[in-house]
Amino acid sequence: MTVYKAGDVIPRVEAPVVELRTGAERPIEPPAVCPGCAGEIDRSQERWRCAQPADCGRIAAILYAAGRDQLDIDGLGEKYVRALVEAGHVRDVADLFTLDEARLAQAAGSEKRAAKLVEQIGAAKGRPLSRVFCALGIVGTGRGMSRRIARHFGTMEAVRAADAAAMTGVELVGDTKAAAIVAQVAELGPVIDKLAAAGVNLTEPQAVPAAAGDGDGAGAGAGAGPGPLAGQTVVVTGRMAGALAAYDTRDKVRELIERAGGKSASGISGRTTLLVAGEKAGGKVAKAEEAGIEIVGEEAFAERIAAFLTV
Q1: DSSP class of 239
Q2: What is the dihedral of CA 76, 192, 102, 117, to 10 degrees?
Q3: Range(s) for CATH 1.10.150.20 in the chain?
Q4: Helix or strand or coil: residue 4?
Q5: Would you tell me how many other CB atoms lie within 10 Å of the CB of residue 122?
Q6: Helices 78-86 & 58-65, crossing angle to 10 degrees?
């Protein structure tokens, strides 16, 4: 078969090479049931999925929600999540915020570890909407799309009020994806209600909420004001320190830049307008100097976007 990179990233099978067949080939039988839970398969889209993903992949879903780029609950690993799920204490991401120290100690086997987890879960309540929305695990939305949705609507209330037409106002969301996202948000209504009841933050910093049902694209992404990085494509290199020390993953840095109105890039190009150079910045500094690109240190950059620093 021939394979190509779809979008220069994802390998995709294009066609068979019929002339190389020997006659010993066997047809590939698609699964009749979900390999994970033996339940029904959702065949409505090109990529088949389990029809009951919440039940089939509950442990994986909770681990994803607690991950570093979502709720960032440090120390909540697979062993503890499995124990909490099997004990019936956790069925969805919102249940994490109802756990007390006794239940966590039972799962972790340590009161000291449980106390640390309580602190981590408490801190997770203050994460921005983009990360909470991402933690919901809605199919078709990852970290980048969750940030765009959160910036566009500003609040979870506005997201829930949006119909498919309003959802298409979000950058890179077409009709099909919009309908799927709206349907999943509605389905997750009880989980979102539990998050709100637990005191989890459901707003995006520096975002201007879109009007409910507003499908003209004038939500937070377009109406939040230009931001200090408006019109800029920013590359960050080296280790961040000081006020930026908490932005220790590429996704956190990307989220910060986008929240401040800019675009994040990984390499120097003709579109790059600003290079932020931290410790051990490497060869990108020389490339930026050669191209005449503005270069600032992490302290100067932190001052420039001070109003947007909210890890």
Answers
A1: B
A2: 30
A3: 55-124, 129-223
A4: strand
A5: 12
A6: 130
Helices (H), the chain: 53-56, 58-65, 78-86, 101-108, 111-124, 129-135, 143-153, 156-161, 164-167, 175-187, 189-197, 220-223, 250-259, 284-291, 298-304
Q: Is 235 helix (H, G, I), strand (E, B) or coil?
A: strand
Residue 2: CB atoms within 10 A of its CB come to 9
- The CATH architecture to which 55-124 belongs is Orthogonal Bundle (1.10)
Contact 54, 61 (CB under 8 A): yes
Angle, vertex CA 75, rays to CA 91 and CA 37, nearest 5: 35
Rounded CA-CA distance 152/82 in Å is 35
CA angle 55, 251, 9 (to 5 degrees): 80
Burial class (CB in 10 A: 0-12, 13-18, 19+), 164: middle
Structural tokens at position 193: 């209600």
Per-residue tokens: 306: 């001070």
pLDDT in tens, the chain (311 residues): 888 876 656 788 889 899 999 999 999 899 999 988 888 999 988 888 888 877 788 999 999 999 998 999 999 999 999 999 999 999 999 999 999 999 999 998 899 999 999 999 999 999 999 999 999 999 889 999 999 999 999 999 999 999 999 999 998 999 999 999 999 999 999 999 999 999 999 999 876 555 544 444 444 443 345 789 999 999 999 999 899 998 888 888 888 898 888 999 989 999 999 999 999 888 999 999 999 999 999 999 999 999 888 75
Cα separation, 142 vs 83, in Å, equals 27
CATH topology of domain 129-223: DNA polymerase; domain 1 (1.10.150)
pTM across the whole model: 0.74
Report the CATH number of the 233-308 domain.
3.40.50.10190
